[in-house]
Design a protein that fits this description.
Helix content: over 70%
Strand content: under 5%
CATH topology of one domain: MetI-like fold
Number of helices: 14
Distance between the termini: 9 Å
Number of strands: 0
CATH superfamily of one domain: MetI-like
CATH class of one domain: Mainly Alpha
Radius of gyration: 24 Å
Shape: globular
CATH architecture of one domain: Orthogonal Bundle
Largest sheet: none
Length: about 325
C-alpha cells in the first residue's frame, strides 16, 4: 500500500508542472494587456510603459515564467495589480466561504445521492424508483441559478427562514453561519446529488444481477446486509469516481452559487480577476485549483485501493 501511495504522489509532480505552464501561458497569451487596463482610458504611452516595467511585463516571457515559478515555490503568490494587496491575503479572506459551501454541500449531495440511488435500485420498477429517476432528471436539467432564485424567493423572501444574501463566519455566530449557508448548500446538494443518484442506481442494478448476490440471499442474509455489505461495496468504484468529480467540481463550480447568494468566496474572486485581467490572482488560483484536483484524484485512487484490494495489485 505504501508503494502505491508513493507512486501516486510522484505522478502528481509532472501534472502540476504542466498545469503551471498552461496557467502562465493562458494569462499572457489571452487578448488584452493588463498594463493598458490598469492605466485607464486616458493614460499615455509613457504611463503604460512605466506600469509594464513595474509589473515586470517588459521582460521576456521565459524570464517572467522562471521568476513566477521561483516565487510560487517559495510561497509568494504575488500582489494583486488593482487592489495592491497580496494574493495570499485575498485568498485567505475568501477561502472560508468556499470551503464551507463545498464541504457541507458535498456531504449533503453524497447523502442524498447514495440514499436515493440505493432506494431506487432496491425498489426498481416501483413508484420509489420513478421518484428517484425524476429527482435525478430534474437535478441535472434545472439550471442552478434558477433553482437558487426559487429557493431565495420561497425560504428567504416569503418564509423568512434564512437570510437572502451574505455570509456569516462561524467565528461570529454559529447559528448565523449555518443559516447563511443553508440555502446555497441545499442548491449544491440537490444539483450535485442528481448524478450520484443515476450512477448509484445503475451500478447497484448491475450488481444485483450477479450470482453472489443471489447466493447471499439464498443463505438467509437480510436485505439490509445484502444491500450495504455486499451490493453497495461491490458497486462503490463508479460511485466513488462520480463523488471525486463532484468534490473537485464543487470547489471550482461555486461561481454561480456565490453569485446568486452574494457570497464573497473564491468563485467570485476568480470571475472578478478574469474580468480585470488581474493575472497574479488568476495564476495563483489556477494553480491552487489544480492542486486541489490532484489531491482529490489521489484521494479517489486511494479509496479505490481501500474498497477493492485488486487495485493495489
Amino acid at each position: 500500500m505504501t508503494a502505491y501511495v508513493i507512486k501516486r504522489l510522484l505522478a502528481t509532480i509532472p501534472v502540476l508542472m504542466i498545469v503551471g505552464l498552461v496557467a502562465f501561458s493562458l494569462v499572457h497569451l489571452a487578448p488584452g494587456d493588463a498594463a493598458n487596463i490598469m492605466a485607464g482610458d486616458y493614460a499615455g504611452p509613457e504611463d503604460v510603459k512605466r506600469i509594464r516595467t513595474e509589473l515586470g511585463l517588459d521582460k521576456p516571457l521565459a524570464r517572467q515564467f522562471v521568476d513566477w515559478v521561483g516565487r510560487t515555490v517559495r510561497g509568494d503568490l504575488g500582489t494583486s495589480i488593482f487592489s495592491g494587496l497580496s494574493v495570499s491575503k485575498l485568498v485567505s479572506t475568501r477561502l472560508a466561504p468556499t470551503l464551507s459551501l463545498a464541504l457541507f454541500g458535498g456531504l449533503l449531495a453524497i447523502a442524498l445521492g447514495v440514499t436515493v440511488g440505493v432506494m431506487a435500485a432496491w425498489k426498481a420498477g416501483t413508484v420509489w424508483d420513478r421518484i428517484g429517476q425524476v429527482y435525478a432528471a430534474l437535478g441535472i436539467s434545472v439550471p442552478g441559478f434558477w433553482l437558487g432564485i426559487v429557493l431565495i424567493y420561497i425560504f428567504a423572501v416569503n418564509l423568512r427562514w434564512f437570510p437572502v444574501i451574505g455570509f456569516t463566519p462561524i467565528t461570529e455566530s454559529a447559528g448565523g453561519f449555518f443559516r447563511s449557508i443553508a440555502l446555497p448548500c441545499s442548491l449544491l446538494g440537490v444539483t450535485g446529488s442528481a448524478v450520484i443518484v443515476r450512477m448509484t442506481r445503475s451500478s447497484m442494478l448491475e450488481v444485483f444481477r450477479e450470482d453472489y448476490i443471489r447466493t447471499a440471499r439464498s443463505k438467509g442474509l437480510g436485505e439490509r446486509d445484502v444491500l450495504l455489505r455486499h451490493a453497495l461495496r461491490a458497486a462503490a468504484i463508479p460511485i466513488i469516481t462520480v463523488i471525486g468529480f463532484l468534490a473537485a467540481g464543487l470547489i471550482t463550480g461555486v461561481v454561480v452559487t456565490e453569485t446568486v447568494f452574494t457570497i464573497p468566496g473564491l468563485g467570485r474572486l476568480v470571475a472578478e480577476s478574469v474580468q480585470k485581467r488581474d493575472f497574479p490572482i488568476v495564476q495563483s488560483l489556477l494553480m491552487m485549483l489544480a492542486f486541489i484536483y490532484v489531491l482529490v484524484n489521489l484521494a479517489v485512487d486511494l479509496a479505490y485501493a481501500f474498497v477493492d484490494p485488486r487495485v493495489r495489485l
